[in-house]
Amino acid sequence: METANHLLQQELARLTGVDFTREENVRKRLSALLSELIVNDQHGLYFLLYRIDIPEKKIKLMLQQHPQENAALLIADMIIERQLQKIQLRSQYRQNPDNIPDDEKW
Fold first, then answer.
1. How many domains are contained in the chain?
2. Which residue, 38, 54, 76, 88, has fewest beta-carbon neighbours within 10 Å?
3. Which pLDDT score, from 0 to 100, does residue 48 have?
4. What is the residue range of 67's domain?
């Protein structure tokens, strides 16, 4: 069974196109990517946040509440939290095919 950290690395790699599988500090690497997007590609940043399902309003509120914090690190934390929620939900609702009654199998 894969660990949540490994699944997180795989998900982030799939979403960003950046290899996170060899990263020991996913948060640091993700915040560096986000800093690059904030400075050079805000459209790409918004698209990424949309794909991850983090509302722009939620980010603006977080940034307003923590104006002295590093924006890229705050957003990285939100992304990691959201991805871990998705991983948990998938594992919670994943069904074991052996537990499906024969009359309900396709």
1. 1
2. 88
3. 93
4. 4-91
Given the structure tokens 């946040």, which residue do they identify? 49
Q: What is the pLDDT of residues 13-43, one digit of tens each?
A: 888 888 887 767 899 999 999 999 999 999 9
Rounded to 5 degrees, what angle do the CA atoms 3, 8, 94 make? 65
pTM for this predicted structure: 0.80
Q: Are 54 and 63 in contact (CB under 8 A)?
A: no
Contacts 24+ apart (CB under 8 A), 35-40: 35/72, 38/71, 38/72
Q: For the purposes of burial, counting CB atoms within 10 Å of the CB of 45, is it exposed (0-12), middle (13-18) or buried (19 or more)?
A: buried
Contact between 104 and 95 under an 8 Å Cβ cutoff? The reply is no
Is 98 inside a domain boundary? no
